[in-house]
Amino acid sequence: MKKTIIILLLFSCACSFAQNKSKTYIDYNKNGRMDIYEDRTQGIRNRVEDLLSQMTMEEKQGQLLMDLGWQYYQRNGNVIELTPYAFATIKQKNLGSLWGFFRSDPWSGKTLDSGITPSLAAKGVNLLQKYMIDSTRLGIPMFIAEECMHGVMQVGSVVFPSGIAQAATWNEELIETMAEDIGTFSLKEGINICFGPMVDISRDARWSRVEETFGEDTYLSSAIGKSFVKGLVNSSIKDKKNVVQQKSVLPTLKHFAAYGISEGGHNGGSAHIGRRELKAEILPPFKACIDAGARLVMSSYNEIDGVPCTMNEYLLNDVLRKDWGFSGIVISDLHSIGGLRSHGVAKDLRQAAEKSINAGVDLDLSATDFYNNLDGVSEQRINEAVKRILYQKFACGLMDNPYVDTYSEKQVKEDFERSLNIAQMVASESIVLLKNDKLLPLTDKTIRYALIGPNSNNIYNQLGDYTGPNSDKTVTTIKQAFEQEKLNFLYAKGCDIRDTNRSGFNEAINIAKQSDVIVLCIGGSSSRYENVEYKQTGEAKINKDVIADITSGEGFDRSSLLLAGVQQELLKELRKLGKPIVVVLVNGRPLVLNEVKENCDALLECFYMGAKGGTAVIKTLIGENNPSGRLPISFPLSVGALPCYYNTKRAANRNDYLEGSSKALYPFGFGLSYTNFVYSDFDVKVHNNATDSVSVSLKCKVTNTGDYDGQEVVEVYIKKLYSTYATNEINLRAFGKKMINKDKSETFTINIDTDAFKEWNASADEQFISSGEYEVSVRKNADEVLFSTIIEIQSVK
Concatenated DSSP letters for 387-414? Predict the structure, then answer.
């Protein structure tokens, strides 16, 4: 009987889908005529006003709620059905949005067998949207939001390298290509909102979410973030008739604001920052991404100067709305509204809800914090929030195209293979060569390798946080890549990431003795797939009684940046053998690598490198990929030198300590190559373009004088010699990346725009072009100058 009901429901869904496709409109409110909001020839604002005029207060408040979506379906084989919880909650709360309908991971409880796959996506989404259209009074379709920072967090999607690895490519076009692929996948699934990119500036390596960010620098984070947003916005799909559908995904920026500079590196801790610095260094990536098309901004858990960001009217209204003209949606982070009670600024959930919505939050990610708690809020403010949400439902095409097409297994496979190829490209360009004592590349085919380490053959350890279930059929580990390349090698795990058990040392040492070169794969893990518990927000709990591999990922802040467990001891034991050692780091944050550097001949930083990371590593080891990654974040000499970032204010902030230098071991922008590049023919020109505009153009020739083709990154920094206010020692203000074949040269033409020469006034409410002398420098990294010159910028009025 149950199977019969499911079949009839699916048949009804298919019939309704076919009927709606044949109509010029969808009769959402089922009144037998075309209302303004159902008429796609009408302007969006007219449609929103018409729909709003028909809504009850309960229906309006329902649009302000986003629930956790994995509770809304169950899968039995290839059959998807909505749950009783779904029917009850949609009816009770008049719900308008879901987050995590596709999410699969240990927290959601969805697995490879119980999560929605790409081939089942149409069934699940169409079933949900049909229920919304047919069974609710006004038939408003459901927003579906998913985590998309490095691929959709779903069974059957490709995992791309994490955010910090994406930034290490220093390749805007490649990241745009990757994001466009993520956006296209999302559209095919029926996803409307992509949570990502995360453009928090990260300046304390102890923080658990460094891996999700684009690093420590404002300009680089802006450039990579903007490229990510452009890729999502430019994604598109075609219908069965090969016609491009009028659908788009809505990028969501995380987390507004100053979330990545927390006290002590604590997740959600206080951010100590003034408004001038906030506007100059923390907010620009958000502004750049909004200008590129981001339509949602997520408030962060932290507070600034005593005001939690989820109730910070200065941020959410004055900056975001008034100064920037943002017309999209402000969404809370998960339970950050209720989190106001933890800050001690709200006595109960009702007061927390009122403070956050009145400060500018439109959408509650939890569906519990706003629910039944908005009685004291004006209808005008509720209408304002509802209109913002409805506008985006129309703008992204959801209201006119709520259903999605079914794709064949062949098409799903082709899409997967295309995504894997892009993932490998990103992984290959993200690898940073930190040390090479004439060992790499290993081109001798007769070499016998000893492959050792806990990150040699662990799927989830190389994928990072916010990752869906995968198998060895969808992820290539380093060991699998060794096998696919048919290299001669022996393998031993050696040890775990955090466990202090040394019982695997002997096996590792024995195979190392039988080998020519040791490849030791160590680092960290953000895997939630082993012995991890969770808080209400999805943040992982630290359980000191359980030794899992996890050392990073949301909730796993650290007080030490040394390799966890006995990994460093294993390296030292292997070093005693006198064999060449390549250390391959797979991890989510900068580590203190002094002893690692001393005890190896070559060192590769791979971060969390995604599904094709193993292949990228092998291609790099044997010379088929010349590493071109550059560090987007500094690696400190010691944890006592934190926070460690390159562009501090210049006076006394990097004085030596009694115990040694405060400089980075590996500075921002660092990265070696298998070849050599020589710079020449520098030319710098200043252009006064208009009354309020000035720019600088820089040209230089770069010649590859080495033995391998390779990509080079030209990094351009500026320094204001004297200013009204204390300024940073230097700031990255432009960069370029090109492939240069051996014995060939390329000319780089790089422009520095007006914003590079602007400062904020004392009250941080106006920018001005700061006249005077500037040093313009081209550098190999933040510490190594190749060329510098002094220019003068005239006051433009």
Answer: HHHHHHHHHTTTTT--------HHHHHH
